[in-house]
């Protein structure tokens, strides 16, 4: 276990009992009269991962002193929405490996993955009704809509080597960071936080989610495939111009820029080793890590507005340790 994963474990230990309650809700609400629905859902949910989005909701609730059982239901809702996006993402990206094992679409086929993703979305909206608060419905409906827009935006940007950093960040803030933002905001809304504090929680979630994805894009060129549970260079094979490539094209020679442009346009990974070398040699990884550090600091600044207690200190620790992430 790395120092970073050990630190994450210590933060998540604060909410270990809460997460067991969330797991019980998930197991109960995955029940369906159609066996394949539960089978596919359980397959992807049981794949592991840190479950940062529901954890974020629970940590914010803890930081603000809320102990209402509704937090378990909404944490499960957030995990269902996230799982639905993963099912759909892997179909769109034609992915075959996630967290070290075959993706659901690889194991069950594309139609089952898409349709079970739809089931999880609709089940999440059924569960939202249990909270009985229009504000919660508004936050989650807005989040799912923005995430869908981000997915389409990313699709439009595929194989486009002219993508700049601003457009890259726009996709991340829509596609990945929005659910982090919604999770943190929901915790504040459940706790009845005043508007300024609610916004601080939302800002924390957005910044944390952005930093998380930027570091994920670094690891696609500088990670350990065994630890990550996916193949290095997957983004390039999918024709995604992520920040490491954008920075490398900006800092490399004309020949190097052309090589990367051609690879993004064709989704070709035959020159992956050389491109990884260019990314590292031009300092593109340092540029990308600096962008992640800026977002992590934004998260820290937002979290400092919460009451000082073990949960808010856990939120600070999550932001600080992102930069040491290796998987």
Automatic annotation (TrEMBL):
<dbReference type="InterPro" id="IPR000092">
    <property type="entry name" value="Polyprenyl_synt"/>
</dbReference>
<keyword id="KW-0479">Metal-binding</keyword>
<keyword id="KW-0460">Magnesium</keyword>
<dbReference type="Pfam" id="PF00348">
    <property type="entry name" value="polyprenyl_synt"/>
</dbReference>
<dbReference type="GO" id="GO:0046872">
    <property type="term" value="F:metal ion binding"/>
</dbReference>
<keyword id="KW-0808">Transferase</keyword>
<comment type="function">
    <text>Supplies octaprenyl diphosphate, the precursor for the side chain of the isoprenoid quinones ubiquinone and menaquinone.</text>
</comment>
<protein>
    <recommendedName>
        <fullName>Octaprenyl diphosphate synthase</fullName>
        <ecNumber>2.5.1.90</ecNumber>
    </recommendedName>
</protein>
<dbReference type="GO" id="GO:0008299">
    <property type="term" value="P:isoprenoid biosynthetic process"/>
</dbReference>
<comment type="similarity">
    <text>Belongs to the FPP/GGPP synthase family.</text>
</comment>
<dbReference type="InterPro" id="IPR008949">
    <property type="entry name" value="Isoprenoid_synthase_dom_sf"/>
</dbReference>
<dbReference type="GO" id="GO:0106350">
    <property type="term" value="F:all-trans-octaprenyl-diphosphate synthase activity"/>
</dbReference>
<dbReference type="InterPro" id="IPR033749">
    <property type="entry name" value="Polyprenyl_synt_CS"/>
</dbReference>
